[in-house]
Amino acid sequence: MTENKLEKAAFAGGCFWCMVKPFKEWPGIHDVVSGYMGGHLDNPTYEDVKKGDSGHLEVVEIKYDPTEFPYDKLLDVYWRQIDPTDAEGQFHDRGSSYATAIFHYTDEQRKIAETSKANLAASGIFSKPIVTTIRPAETFYPAEEYHQDYYIKSEEHYKDNRARSGRDVFITKHWA
Q: Do 137 and 170 touch, CB atoms closer than 8 A?
């Protein structure tokens, strides 16, 4: 597969450390990069985003082969990593930079995301409304190098942080 046949997707799901590994595990996913999107500051730093000063969300940008792993399957993975009913952040990470959002690069992605969100809302899995926003993709700023593949680079800290966050308990409760 040549690089020019790959497509991009971007998802905000709270802490980007917890959003990389679930996507990297699938065939057809060529890269998952932690970063920032959706704000008003050029070249934001982690501190800018964490403080909420930049307006950005923590996101993962995914390069994928849609013939091996279609966009609707990415959305299936995405929904199973987040609490789509929480507008104030994700699990123990609170604040606007940890909100959930689907950033679409094409009109086709937008339509698929809207259908996926409507199907999730109609499924009855959640008793509260689905508040995850669907927004046009904006400039993606990769996070600092130490954030990339954090689950590998700082495995023990990653595991401890994820365990304390409540994310896995939530996922098991709603998707197991």
A: no
| The three-state (H, E, C) secondary structure of the chain, written as one string | CCHHHCEEEEEEECCCHHHHHHHHCCCCEEEEEEEEECCCCCCCCHHHHHHCCCCCEEEEEEEECCCCCCHHHHHHHHHCCCCCCCCCEECCEECHHHCEEEEECCHHHHHHHHHHHHHHHHHCCCCCCCCCEEEECCCCEECCHHHCCHHHHCHHHHHHHHHHHCHHHHHHHHHC
Which residue is associated with the tokens 């904006």?
Answer: 138
In 10 A of CB 174, how many CB atoms? 14
Can you tell me the distance from the alpha carbon of 60 to that of 22, in angstroms, rounded to the nearest whole number?
11
Give dist(CA 63, CA 29) in Å, integer. 6
Asked whether the whole model's pTM tops 0.85, one would answer yes
What is the per-residue pLDDT across 139-171, written as a single tens digit (0 to 9) for each?
A: 999 999 999 999 999 999 999 999 999 999 999
Active site amino acids: 15
